[in-house]
Amino acid sequence: MQNIHLEPLGNGVKVYVSDSYHFSTDTILLADFSKPRGSKKCVDLGTGCGTIPLLWCRQNKSLDITAVEIQPDACTLAQKSVDYNGLNDNIKILNSDLKALRGRLKFGYFDTVVCNPPYKIGGGGITNPDSAKQIARHETECTLDDICESASRLLQFGGRFFICQRPERLADVTESMKKYDLEPKTLRLVQQRISKAPKLFLLEGRRGGRRGFLNIMPTLLIEDESGQFSREMTEIYGSYKTGCDLNRSPASITPERKDKI
Fold first, then answer.
1. pTM of the entire structure?
2. What one-character-per-residue DSSP string does the chain give?
């Protein structure tokens, strides 16, 4: 791993990142959309460098989180962050394929499962020669069905599953969720500015939820009319990256985080 360094996440929490394992704006949005409240048992599937569990723990130290990751180097980096932040009582790093969790994690036990998945179908688009980045971007190690099946098995009845994806894959995600008894309940679109089409969606599903009602939240705008971060984006970033100058334009901050877009 090259260029390993600490990135501040706010409230004194920091994450180790590298050229191959880092996080995106999408990661921050998904962590905010899915953040568990109170004492919850949680799983992050495909945790990468462990950013989502760390963001969750900035203000909630009552969480019990298992962060699952198939790549050993990413697990090493994530564990380094857990150790640095003194969060070993809250976050456990599990080096495992999410398709092979039987006997390693309790099924029907967890309150919350989250996943920031690969955005591109396996074999689609230009693949990255960096194997770590290819796994993060393309469905080479798991499919949407694999993710939803794993989440469904892990969640207790009524448990919540959160995912983000590209809008063009909304039908794929909802179809896969329903296939594994995860009823879509809350949807939010994300777009850079009001004049642009959405680039991302955030979706919550409930294990065993009743069919029929889908709550569609107002669209989240990254920028306001002046090209600066919108008020809501500023609130979401909050204390994230205390060294980040939120007066800079979003275009000067956001792209360096977009390892998947």
1. 0.87
2. --S-EEEEEETTEEEEE-SSS---HHHHHHHHHH---SS-EEEEET-TTTHHHHHHHTT-TT-EEEEEES-HHHHHHHHHHHHHTT-TTTEEEEE--TT--BTTB-TT-EEEEEE---SB-TT-SPPPSSHHHHHHHBTTS--HHHHHHHHHHHEEEEEEEEEEE-GGGHHHHHHHHHHTTEEEEEEEEEESSTTS---EEEEEEEETPPSS--EEPPPEESB-TTSSBPHHHHHHHTTSSTT--TTS-GGGTSGGG-S--
